[in-house]
């Protein structure tokens, strides 16, 4: 029998809060209950927002709540070449294209479109779908703009990617119990695969790393439930066997809002300074 492999994959761009504690400890509990392994991955592709100090603080907080993980830790910032290779494959398959529009350009381009602009589709995170302008550019125009040094990201040509796959995709979900979920990557439109300043994005790195690290069970918050549709599509394009997914409920604040890294009162460091114990943290998140 293969040993289950779990991972906790925070981004060191702020301090951990109770929601992260729940996710990390749930991963640990599920790994222990199944005789599995637990890996830790730093999703630190954003070199401006993720800092060594924040990573150090994060590791300290995780140790304090009693998490143990295998070493070495995988740091995404050390593997840009791997993501670049994956991106090159999609470029070679002509499934991604250079996208030059800034956020304000996107709005303007949509306003200039004929038809019902008020109901322009939005992705599950609420962002407007990328308009078709750049998808339609000729190769020579693309080359001209790139040659001029215009900044661009790489976006997936969703329509073409779906045609390439040619069948519906789904994933195995275990929350609240085991069932199949139909993936709906089309809901994302032409999603970003590589950001302007780097050869990757959250979606690309997470799919490549989960595969390289042999992750069998992805346990993460429901805020990433819809992103799994994009991950399934990328896995299929790269011939990767998908893990099983478990999207757990989020820890909410008193007003029913999702916790954020910028809030102090639910930060693990703050709670520790107030004299809370790791046992109390487990109690607070119900584990
Ligand atoms: N790095 C992501 C975050 O901190 C989590 C990624 C994942 O678990 O897939 O929200």
TrEMBL record:
PROSITE patterns: AA_TRNA_LIGASE_I. InterPro entries: aa-tRNA-synth_I_CS, Glu/Gln-tRNA-synth, Glu/Gln-tRNA-synth_Ib_cat-dom, GluQ/Sye, Rossmann-like_a/b/a_fold. Keywords: Aminoacyl-tRNA synthetase, ATP-binding, Ligase, Metal-binding, Nucleotide-binding, Protein biosynthesis, Zinc. Residues 6-281 form the Glutamyl/glutaminyl-tRNA synthetase class Ib catalytic domain. Residues 117-126 have a biased composition (Basic and acidic residues). GO terms for biological process: glutamyl-tRNA aminoacylation. One of its GO terms (cellular component) is cytosol. GO terms for molecular function: ATP binding; glutamate-tRNA ligase activity. Residues 117-143 are annotated as: Disordered. Belongs to the class-I aminoacyl-tRNA synthetase family. This is tRNA glutamyl-Q(34) synthetase GluQRS. It comes from Phyllobacterium sophorae.
